[in-house]
């Protein structure tokens, strides 16, 4: 009797166990979203010297272009280009960039900018610029040398832990 009860409980638990956990089965049929056509995909290079350029545009208004060429004695590639797209609310997103020895710089009216400097900070910067131009250099005062007796070292404290 006890065995039948245990067997019934095990069958009930197995039947109540959730079915279908795990990733969904792959769908090899139609794509899950709209198909966006590629309108332009022009690519050239990189050639032997390292020059390259490409221009890419999709049917939903996304575009990307870039040109690059080796610069300087080390031959590091400097690039420039940009990308654009339209936000869901219809706002155009346009970005331009330059990547060279001075770093990676992006320009866009959509990028955040720091607040303007307050007038007193601008005045301090201008004063420092004028002083530099006049040849005035500020030297921090040196701290006085500590006064140690080379002949007699300090005696250890005997009051440690006492009040």
Please describe what this structure looks like.
The chain has about 160 residues and is α+β, with helices and mostly antiparallel strands. It is about 20% helix and about 30% strand. It has helices spanning about 1-15, 120-135, and strands spanning about 40-45, 50-60, 65-70, 75-85, 90-100, 105. It has a 6-stranded antiparallel sheet with strand order 1-2-3-4-5-6, with no helix packed on it. A hairpin with a 5-residue loop joins strand 4 and strand 5. The longest helix has 16 residues, at about 120-135. The model has no long low-confidence stretch (mean pLDDT about 80).
Layout of helices and strands:
Elements: H1 2-16, E1 38-44, E2 52-58, E3 63-71, E4 76-86, E5 92-100, E6 103-107, H2 119-134
Antiparallel strand pairs: 1-2, 2-3, 3-4, 4-5, 5-6
Task: Describe this protein with a few key phrases.
alpha+beta; 6-stranded antiparallel sheet; 163 residues
Write a brief structural summary.
By secondary structure, the protein is of the alpha+beta class. Helices cover 19% and strands 29% of the residues.
Tally of strands = 6
Low-pLDDT residue intervals, each spanning 5 or more residues: none
Oligomer: single chain
Proportion of residues in β-strands? 25-35%
- The DSSP helix count reads 2
Largest sheet: 6 strands, antiparallel
